[in-house]
Amino acid sequence: MSGLEIRRLRVSFDGFTAVDGVDLDVRPGDLRFLIGPNGAGKTTLVDAVTGLVRAEGSVRFGGEELLGRSVHRIARSGIGRTFQTATVFEELTVLQNLDIAAGAGRSLWTMLRRRKDVPEPVARALETVGLTELADSPAGTLAHGQKQWLEIGMLLVQDVRLLLLDEPVAGMSHDERQATGELLQRISAERTVVVIEHDMDFMRSFARSVSVLHAGKVLSEGTVAEVQADPKVQEVYLGHAAAETTADVAVQEA
Ligand SMILES: Nc1ncnc2c1ncn2[C@@H]1O[C@H](COP(=O)(O)OP(=O)(O)OP(=O)(O)O)[C@@H](O)[C@H]1O
User: Fold this and answer.
1) Over 80: is that where the pLDDT of 207 sits?
2) What is the 3-state secondary structure (H, E, C) of 49-85?
3) What is the ipTM of this complex?
4) What is the 182 CA–ligand 1 centroid distance (Å)?
5) Closest atom of ligand 1 relative to the 198 alpha carbon
6) What is the dihedral of CA 240, 163, 209, 236, to 10 degrees?
7) pTM over 0.90
8) Domains of the chain, with CATH numbers?
9) Residue 120 class from Cβ within 10 Å (0-12 exposed, 13-18 middle, 19+ buried)?
């Protein structure tokens, strides 16, 4: 099974090139972290894959070309994403949220009715994301981390094969981060998962592979150890830190 294959991807905004000729291959079973300084083009790359911005080049998933397709058609091709802020229906229960995500073709009444028989894919998703006990709680009462897990569950019931997650652990507690990392490892065993992340500790603990983006290009790629040892990466990150330190000193001296 072929996963995500990106070739010569380019996205421009009014003459500014945010993604500048990116090649990227992510196989099913991988857990790829996409890192890079602010403005590197990470979110824009995911926007291009999901059809939110126009792009040139080629994005194939499972061998099918996605560029040029509508957002809805891309979603129907088994591609799903989460955003930094979870987008769940707060007034509905966890189960109803999952039911609606799973429920193409069912009436709203069928989906909102309290049912004893939870459909098998929904029960499996509840189990996978660890929310079985909270199935009947309104989503609005969930903790921040639990909402992110619900959103991932909503992708699982749609049988999304490629998950693109934008900073899934931002704002999470240490325990929530750990649980999220383990969740991502479980779901990536048979799906293709790409995670945009700024949290380097989280990346070191859970990434199977890493791509570093800088100024719209892939700067480095490999295992966590390979990427960390790459002088180009050290320069970008240390250069960044050095610049911030200099700025801090300048502010303090002013
Ligand atoms: N709609 C847009 N119009 C104009 N410029 C944009 C647009 N979207 C993004 N950009 C620019 O493209 C560049 C890449 O942005 P992008 O959000 O993809 O970076 P990022 O790596 O995700 O950064 P961050 O880690 O801060 O989220 C930035 O310079 C940004 O200002």
Assistant:
1) yes
2) HCCCCCCEEEEEECCEECCCCCHHHHHHCCEEEECCC
3) 0.95
4) 29
5) 25
6) -10
7) no
8) 4-253 (3.40.50.300)
9) exposed
Q: What is the whole-number distance in angstroms between the Cα of residue 19 and the centre of ligand 1?
A: 9
Ligand 1 atom closest to 16 (CA)? 5
Q: Identify how many contiguous H helices and E strands the chain contains and give both numbers.
A: 10, 10
Residue 180 CA to ligand 1 center (angstroms) comes to: 26
Distance from Cα 49 to the centre of ligand 1, integer Å: 15
How many angstroms is it from 100 CA to the middle of ligand 1?
32
Q: 146: closest CA among 159, 158, 157, 133?
A: 133
The DSSP H or E segment spanning 155 is: helix 144-157
Token pair in block for residue 161: 């094969």
Place of tokens 């570093």: 212
CA–CA distances in Å: residue 187 to residues 123, 181, 190, 197, 246: 15, 10, 6, 17, 42
Other CB atoms within 10 A of residue 207 CB: 23
pLDDT digits (tens, 9 = 90+) for 217-227: 999 999 999 99
The pocket around ligand 1, CB under 6 angstroms, is made up of 13, 16, 18, 36, 38-44
Q: Whose CA is nearest to atom 10 of ligand 1?
A: 18
Chain length of the chain:
254
